[in-house]
Amino acid sequence: MSCPFNQSALLNHAVLPLDWLLGTWQSDEPGEGSFPSIAPFRYSETLHFSHVGQPVINFMFNAFHAESKKPLHRECGFIRFQPGTNRVAFIIAQNSGLVEIEEGELIGQQLTLHCTTLARTSFAKEPFVQQISRHIQLKPDGRLEQTVSMALEGQPLTQHLHITYRRTD
């Protein structure tokens, strides 16, 4: 039985500009997390970007506590392009009950995204996230860097996470 997520399918031309993301990435050293309302923390993370030949990239992000290796946060979803442009959208579901759409631009090997839509379960934990922005870029040394900023009720948009990754496959 073959795996339905086999990457032997040809990459759809609509997502060719993101071929540099494909594969598995592992944090090369613990990332840094902070926010005014929480104690700073360190985490490790694995990113996996794949495709099945459709005009989307599939992704899964799994974060773990740097020392205890306890699971912390998961995100999964899809990346789409607006046809004929460099406009990109991340459609994301988080294990916290938050669902979001982030839209932005791909310039070279840099993605800059801002949340346009947020939805949450009716029993989501407060304070509620109000805004998220994300910057992902491939560095000249081949490492992938991600910075995530977040705003909560009563808190302005503030850098929340910063981490770098190395490709593992």
Describe the overall structure:
With 169 residues, the chain is mainly beta. The chain contains no helices and eleven strands. Strands 1, 2, 3, 4, 5, 6, 7, 8, 9, 10 and 11 form an eleven-stranded antiparallel beta sheet that branches. Strand 4 and strand 5 form a beta hairpin. The protein is globular and about 45 Å long. The protein starts with 22 loop residues before the first strand and ends with a strand. The relative contact order is 0.19. The model has no long low-confidence stretch (mean pLDDT 94).
Keywords:
mainly beta, 11 strands, 11-stranded antiparallel sheet, 169 residues
Q: What is the fold's blueprint, element by element?
A:
Elements: E1 23-27, E2 31-35, E3 38-50, E4 56-65, E5 71-81, E6 87-94, E7 98-107, E8 110-120, E9 129-138, E10 144-152, E11 158-167
Antiparallel strand pairs: 1-3, 1-11, 2-3, 2-11, 3-4, 4-5, 5-6, 6-7, 7-8, 8-9, 9-10, 10-11
Helix tally equals 0
Name the average pLDDT. 94
Morphology: globular
* Strand count: 11
Measured between the Cα atoms of the first and last residue, the distance is 23 Å
- Please state the structural category: mainly beta
- Model regions low in confidence, pLDDT < 50 over at least 5 residues: none
The main pleated sheet reads as: 11 strands, antiparallel
Assembly annotation = single chain
Hey, roughly how much beta strand do the residues contain? over 45%
Along the chain, the helix and strand elements come as EEEEEEEEEEE
Specify Rg, calculated over alpha carbons: 16 Å
- In helices, the fraction of residues equals under 10%
